[in-house]
Write a structure and sequence with these properties.
This protein has 658 residues and is mainly beta. It has three domains: 79 residues, Cytochrome Bc1 Complex, Chain D, domain 2; 50 residues; 467 residues, Methanol Dehydrogenase, Chain A (8 Propeller). The chain is built from six helices and 43 strands. β16 and β17 form a beta hairpin.
């Protein structure tokens, strides 16, 4: 039976409640409800009308946020006419919503464990089968439910397994796993075990890092910690994108060391985070971003040092690799990739462009614990299409440099493309391998270079052991000398009217990860058959905030680009097999080799794919329908092997059925 208030009583009740409620609502909240809440939800979590606001908040300063509110996004979000005072109140409310969304959960739990003990702490995440709990000592426990009678469930601690602690897994960079659950016999049973969406992200270039069952994934100025068995978020660290940076549109991952992870930011800072809580422990500026510096690469942990590089080859910086104390963030050493006046190699820069010569260090280096040596790949010289003001070889651009890990002192270098005029960074992973080479054991460094040649070096001294051309379309060099110096073809320099050169500016290969399988002796990598038209232009002055290119390049008209997965014998440089990939030849996915004879790779049309490591025969594929920019990795956790990669903006972990 329905009951009603008398009309007079209802009016009286409304007169008491409504005015008081309106007076109690803060101005910023009222503004949010009137302007934003309909689409983004009352708490900002999103609705069918619009997305969650929180990723956008984390990536913007107050000034950037105010501009967004006022101008909107064409076709997606209307702008607002709002005065300064109301905007201040709205921004304050938005930040309060952001703080609330990032607050550590306060629900405390006391759980019965399967071994008879109890576990007390703060619940971070919860699913039907899993729970993530932080205990008083700051550690995170990844738990799995064991169903019992009502209200008598118990939990067990998920077992740690094989980690992937850095960008390439092993510091030697070979992208090879000895995990043996996934084989040729069962690979067709692989399925996606979980997916985590990184909000408002696309075409990410990072590799997940896994330590003790916690996975760390990144975007620009963001690090997210996940339960590696379920993908459940544990914490997220973020800061706004820095206004005025010139080139930091990506982030390739973290380094891990002890209880910390380390991330490079868009404004060339190195930040240490507690890996259990996400709390920032220190923040060190490595270079002044106002001078065109930025950072995109994953740092590298070596001993108690964390090494990082910088971008800026297209922007006229002076590249370097720097090492920092993992506990304090204090700089331990710095190696400049362009020698200062009077230093060895300075005479390879004849002209004024040595001051803004580029040679950036934006991809992660590799490390040999036996020799205590770091091998870092160096990028192209600046004003790349016009070398008039940098005559000479331009050391150490387009090199791999071998550095003493404790001091940063140069042991040796090898330059792949002296006086580069085509933007062919040597920033492809230098893979370190101990193997039989032409009948004797050698310590090798292997690289498929962007210039179209495959190199095998002795990593103890940098001596060239083998150089082989690996693409058919190659016009810039007629061959190599015995010491690995290119015999350049005349007339291949960029010109005002345009010069046709192969490979293209994107290169015969690029930063996407190669891999090596010691059982097959094969090196696996993606290669492109493509060419560019290079135009030289005058550009006499370097300006902060602008590119320093000395020309332009474009794809060759009417050219058909081709994309191949290649397997090369490292002893001979001969092609063992190649797998042509249909499509537009735009996808940049990397590779992963396994001890069970498989090669995982990002396929041209967006699939995660597996081929037989010995023959190249396709064995399995999973369609992600994205344009790959990242590389796969492997780990085990709680007794299960996983293959994971970031496809577009989604972290996908694959495994065998339970």
């Amino acid at each position: 039976m329905r009951s009603f208030l008398p009309a007079t009583a209802a009016v009286a009740a409304l007169s008491l409640v409504t005015p008081l409620a309106a007076q109690d609502i803060p101005a910023g909240q009222r503004s949010f409800e009137n302007r934003c809440g309909r689409c983004h939800g009352a708490e900002g979590n999103g609705s069918e009308m619009g997305p969650s606001i929180f990723n956008g908040l984390a990536q913007r300063t107050d000034q950037q946020l105010g501009m967004l509110v006022r101008t909107g996004i064409p076709g997606r979000m209307p702008g607002n006419q709002i005065n300064d005072e109301d905007l201040t109140q709205l921004t304050r409310h938005l930040r309060s919503l952001q703080a609330r969304s990032q607050a550590i959960p306060s629900r405390r739990v006391k759980l019965s464990m399967s071994d008879g003990s109890t576990l007390e702490g703060v619940q971070l995440g919860l699913g039907f089968q899993d729970m993530q709990v932080r205990t008083a000592d700051g550690k995170v426990h990844l738990l799995r439910r064991i169903p019992g009678e009502k209200d008598h469930d118990t939990f067990r601690e998920a077992k740690s397994g094989t980690d992937w602690p850095g960008f390439n897994g092993d510091p030697r960079g070979n992208r090879y796993t000895t995990l043996d659950q996934i084989t040729k016999a069962n690979v067709r049973q692989l399925t996606a075990k979980w997916v985590f969406n990184i909000p408002n992200a696309n075409r990410l270039q990072g590799t997940p890092v896994v330590v003790g069952g916690i996975m760390y994934v990144t975007n620009v100025n963001q690090c997210i910690a996940l339960d590696a068995g379920t993908g459940r978020q544990i914490w997220r660290w973020s800061r706004p994108v820095t206004p005025g940076t010139v080139g930091a549109g990506s982030n390739r991952g973290v380094a891990s060391l002890g209880d910390r992870v380390f991330i490079a930011t868009d404004n060339a800072h190195l930040v240490a985070l507690n890996r259990f809580t996400g709390e920032q422990e220190w923040d060190t500026e490595t270079a002044d971003f106002h001078q065109n510096y930025f950072a995109t690469g994953a740092p590298v942990a070596v001993g108690n040092l964390v090494l990082t590089g910088v971008g800026g080859g297209e922007h006229g910086t002076r590249g370097f690799v720097a090492a920092y104390n993992a506990d304090t963030g204090k700089e331990a050493w710095r190696f400049w990739t362009i020698p200062a006046a009077g230093e060895p190699g300075a005479d390879t820069w004849q002209g004024k462009d040595r001051e803004h010569g580029g040679a950036p260090t934006w991809l992660s280096g590799t490390y040999d614990p036996e020799l205590d040596t770091v091998y870092w790949p160096i990028g192209n010289p600046a004003k790349e299409y016009n070398g008039d003001d940098r005559r000479g070889d331009n050391l150490y651009s387009d090199c791999v440099v071998a550095l003493d890990a404790k001091t940063g002192k140069l042991k040796w270098y090898f330059q792949f493309t002296p006086h580069d005029l085509w933007d062919w960074d040597a920033t492809e992973t230098p893979v370190l391998v101990n193997a039989q080479f032409q009948g004797q054991p050698r310590k090798l460094l292997i690289q498929a270079n962007r210039n179209g040649f495959f190199y095998v070096l002795d990593r103890t001294d940098g001596k060239v052991l083998l150089v082989k051309q690996f693409v058919r379309k190659l016009t810039w060099a007629a061959g190599m000398t015995a010491d690995g110096r290119p015999v350049k073809t005349p007339g291949q320099e960029p010109s005002p009217e345009g010069t046709f050169v192969c490979p293209s500016q994107d290169g015969a290969t690029n930063f996407y990860s190669p891999s090596f399988n010691p059982a097959t002796g094969l090196f696996y990598f993606h290669a492109f058959e493509s060419c560019s038209i290079y135009n030289k232009r005058d550009q006499s002055t370097w300006v902060a905030g602008q590119t320093y290119l000395g020309g332009v390049q474009r794809g060759a008209p009417g050219e058909v680009r081709e994309h191949y997965l290649k397997a090369m014998d490292i002893s001979t440089g001969k092609l063992a097999w190649e797998l042509e990939q249909p499509g537009p030849s735009q996808s940049w996915g990397g590779t992963l080799a396994t001890g069970t004879g498989l090669v995982f790779f990002g396929e041209e049309n967006g699939a995660m794919m597996v081929a037989d490591a010995s023959t190249g025969k396709p064995l399995w594929r999973f369609e992600t329908n994205t344009l790959w920019k990242a590389s796969p990795m492997a780990y085990s956790f709680d007794g299960k092997e996983y293959i994971a990669a970031i496809a577009g903006g989604n972290v996908i972990a694959f495994g065998l059925p339970d």
